From TrEMBL:
Molecular functions per Gene Ontology: phosphoglycolate phosphatase activity
Protein name: Haloacid dehalogenase superfamily enzyme, subfamily IA
Cited InterPro entries: HAD-like_hydrolase_sf (IPR050155), HAD-like_sf (IPR036412), HAD-SF_hydro_IA (IPR006439), HAD_2 (IPR041492), HAD_sf (IPR023214), PGP-like_dom2 (IPR023198)
GO cellular component, one term: cytosol
Amino acid sequence: MALEGVILDVDGTLVLSNDAHAQAWVEAFAEHGYEVPFERVRPLIGMGGDKVIPRMVPELNAQEGPGKAIANRRKELIINKFGPKLTSANGTRDLVLKMRQSGLHLVIASSATTQELGILLKAAQVDDLLQEATTSSDADASKPAPDIVEAALSKAQMEPDNVVMLGDTPYDVESAGQAGVGVIALRCGGFSDEQLSGAIAIYDDPADLLKHYDHSPLAQAA
């Protein structure tokens, strides 16, 4: 089947934000009396925040008490402190333009909230190009569960066999895989090829994928 569309992760894929998210977690935990080293939380970025919190402090959860307060504070830090300093991944805008010109249906699948997503897309310099999105509110379970990818498929009315996902973490690969979608992985999110081994292809960043576009899985567009 010809490729019909692309599901887009945002953090670490279109915008270089993974380190910022990790630092926001460190600061949010610290403000509530929990010492969480950057090195412990960084490998979990790309996983839903509701899963990160109990991984760091088992007695906490994102739905109530200190865990909920920490989750809310992390969001505030991303929006107000880190968001304005974020930069686009190399080649993001040019790649999105190329995919649009190729006739691909583009839909975002992000664990971010709607408010965070607006800031992230602006930092990625594609806020005027990408309007169709599913966010944390569209999924019962966060990555690496398949819910957000399935929500994106449903919203775009596309079948898994006709779609690929662009992502940067092993949680993207796992989430999409459970939904029957292959992942083109990008190294700019900070994960190794071994960690991304379930992907159908791996490139350095959007610019590298664009450079090899005609020989990539994206070239199967109708």
